[in-house]
Amino acid sequence: MDLVPFDKRSGKIWFNGEKVEWANAKVHVLNHGLHYASCVFEGERVYDGEIFKLEEHTKRLFYSAGRMGIKIPYNQKEINQACNEIVLAQKVQNGYVRPIAWRGSEMMAISAQKNKIHVVIATWEWGSYFDPDLKLKGIKLNISSWRRPNPNSVPWDTKSSGLYMICTLSKHEAESKGFTDSLMLDYEDNIAESTGSNIFFKNDKNEIHTPIPDSFLDGITRRCVIDIAKSKGIKIIERKIKPDEMSNFSGCFLTGTAAEVTPVSQIDKYKFNVCDVIKDLSESYKALVQKKTAA
Q1: H or E element: which one contains 9?
Q2: Alpha carbon of 126 to those of 84, 159, 178, 240: distances in Å?
Q3: N or C: which terminus of the chain has fewer CB atoms within 10 Å of its end residue's CB?
Q4: pTM above threshold 0.85
Q5: What's the mean pLDDT in 195-202?
Q6: pLDDT at position 132, please?
Q7: 83, 7, 95, 116: which is closest to 46 by C-alpha?
Q8: Is the CB of residue 117 less than 8 Å from the CB of residue 141?
Q9: Could you give the count of Cα atoms lying within 13 Å of 146 in the half-sphere of its Cβ?
Q10: Residue 130: pLDDT band by 50, 70, 90 thresholds?
């Protein structure tokens, strides 16, 4: 993975309708997005020069913005076009795209009714989110001490920056203890997701169980993998899952734009196998994003 700091890279970034030099894509330190987390974003993958599920991601960006009272000063078609243009300009073949919208600096208080909405789209080459060798063996997770909040307390169905604060805290805690990532429970102590991915479990009947996304994002990759599994005749059961139920499952994996399909070998004291069903789902997802016929 490229270790060049993100503020030291080169090329162009789409900034409020113009392609500007990477080093010139700057904002003032007194902006509302930084101080009050009034900011929404997306994460998109580029495969062979094309953005996977671009329209779905853009639609979710606008939904998130609407929930946050942020009126993006472009339409969805314009954002789709800008995403494709910046990928082409940066010559990204297999990478990541980050569209982001935030409130600017006109007002610096809780209220931000007059703040300008800024939109940026950046892209860069990017490989596997998790170490490829770890993905083959299955990654290890702890269980976070933080909880996904009650859906009445946050705009839980948005991809907004403030919701990721506890994800960073959880992942840092996990890494400090030798784990790769962290499992987050919800406000009722049911299994929710990892810090940035949805989670699935396989039992000995080859059924796949996954939490109901009622306090966390119903991921675009999550829905893709559910469709792939159903096409293979695999039964998908969406339900509330308690942590002690993990002893009943033989397999586990994560899904997400960044994570793709990542097997899990351990969560806290619970162990899982990287079984053929999970490997097959992973390969079928790879075939889908590369526009091949899914097996």
Answers
A1: none
A2: 16, 21, 24, 34
A3: N
A4: yes
A5: 98
A6: 78
A7: 95
A8: no
A9: 18
A10: confident
Phi/psi for 143 (5° steps) reads -110, 120
Give me the mean pLDDT over the 103-124 stretch.
Answer: 97
HSE (CB half, 13 Å, CA atoms) of 102? 28
Q: Please report the pLDDT score of residue 292 as a whole number.
A: 44
> What domains sit in the chain, N to C, each tagged with a CATH number?
8-125 (3.30.470.10), 132-289 (3.20.10.10)
- CB burial of residue 128 (10 Å; 0-12, 13-18, 19+): middle
Q: Give the whole-angstrom CA distance, residue 221 versus residue 238.
A: 15
Q: Where are the beta strands (DSSP E) in 149-285?
A: 181-186, 191-194, 198-202, 208-211, 236-239, 251-256, 260-267, 270-271
Q: Are 229 and 281 in contact (CB under 8 A)?
A: yes
Please compute the mean of the pLDDT values over residues 116-129 and round it to a whole number: 94
- Residue 136 is predicted with a pLDDT of 81
* Length reported for the chain: 295
- Looking at residue 26, its amino acid is K
Start-to-end CA span in the chain (Å): 29
Please say if the pLDDT value at position 2 is more than 70: no
- What does the pLDDT look like over 18-31, one tens digit per residue? 999 999 999 999 99
Half-sphere exposure of 131 (CA within 13 A, CB side): 9
As given in the structure block, the two tokens for residue 139 are 């990654």
Specify the amino acid at residue 6: F
- Beta bridge mates, 15: 18, 120
> 230 or 134: which carries more pLDDT confidence?
230
Tell me which residue has tokens 């994002």. Answer: 217
- Find out whether 208 and 234 touch, Cβ atoms under 8 Å: yes
| Token pair of 58 as six digits | 């853009």
- In degrees and rounded to multiples of 5, residue 3 shows phi and psi of -100, 5
Task: List, for residues 230-273, the tens digit of each pLDDT value.
Answer: 999 999 999 999 999 999 999 999 999 999 999 999 999 999 99
